[in-house]
Design a protein that fits this description.
17 helices, 13% strand, alpha+beta, single chain
Length: 414
Amino acid sequence: MKSIVKAHSLTGRITPQTVFAAWLAVKRNRGAAGIDKVSVSMFEKNLDANLDSLMRQLKTGSFQPMPARRVYIPKAPGKFRPLGIPAVRDRVAQEVLRSLLSPLFEQLFHDHSFGFRPKRGCHQAVEKVKELHRQGYRYVLDADISGFFDNLSHSAIMMELSKVVADGNILRLVEKFLSAGVMEGGKYQATRVGTPQGGVVSPLLANIALNLMDWKLEEAGYRFVRYADDFVVLCKSERQAKEALDLVSKLLADQLSLALSPEKTHITTFKKGFAFLGFQIGAWTIRMRDKSKEKFKDKIRQITTRSHNLDAEMIEKLNRVIRGTANYFTRPWSACGYMYRILDRWIRMRLRCMKSKRKSSLDNRRTRLTHFEHMGLLSLRSFISARAVRTPGLSLEGAIPTGSPGARKMHAGK
């Protein structure tokens, strides 16, 4: 693990410029109001006074965060993910903390950690998995931590923080945010463990907590790729993968009071394939996983109900969903052409049903593809063509690198 130099005077770095920069970051991210019902625009109306008051409270240690507002978002059919929405003033305060702590810990984080870090992201994480596969790592420990954000030990977070931060005021501020609680249905619920998803500083605290596991895996000689609490350990034999499973289980239990999910954690191989960050990764291809496809279709269904009108506003809503999905999944190494073609046809079918208020193949002749093009509807396939122009050696048909077995099989079947 990298050497640590303690920081003693972080409170002195809370300046008007720091607080204003934090406010700008919160404003860019927008978001809903917290339990005080103060929106971003309402907070801005008295901005100078609000920021001055906040800075004084942060520097003197008198700041007290409000409980987060508990909401639930769909996660899977019949399942929901809890989110905690802090008040705007609390989001600004958390952003101040994040801006002070992140540079200290960024230099201590492992190179194979990609989540919520500057100039890193999901695609770099998948590319690292590809690189390790090329190096001969064929076995995969596909790990899933049970209720990570809800069960993360506060004492474990504070222990790792205190190794780097010696400023008592900053440490107390973090403790206050961790124990601020949530409001759900008008009732207050204390938070003795966990850090609410939705908090500005929560991803950083997650990385801080799991950094110890990263370096323990490194010391034991394992190769891994982690994005927040989603990680895989790459091994050259099944025996190594089983040993990695034992080590990870022990580290999580002893250091963080966490456990792996028995249902979602398993040992597999690249040949069998596994899901990671929305992709289905195999020995020869990487594609959009089926669960990601269903999430995309659910979003389209919500927009294209038959009671809605097929107009320019509707097309713009669809384009936002299509653009976001295509920008994420259309990569030089992602084989998405075939699935995109099916999804594009399915979207047009949904739109024809909206227009005619029925489902009939006859409507394909009445509402041609050019009609949707004239309305400005984007297609997923168009993003492959655009990327292929910028990426020499890319197969337009399936976004499969030319020369790969997948590309050879595809062209042989034409």
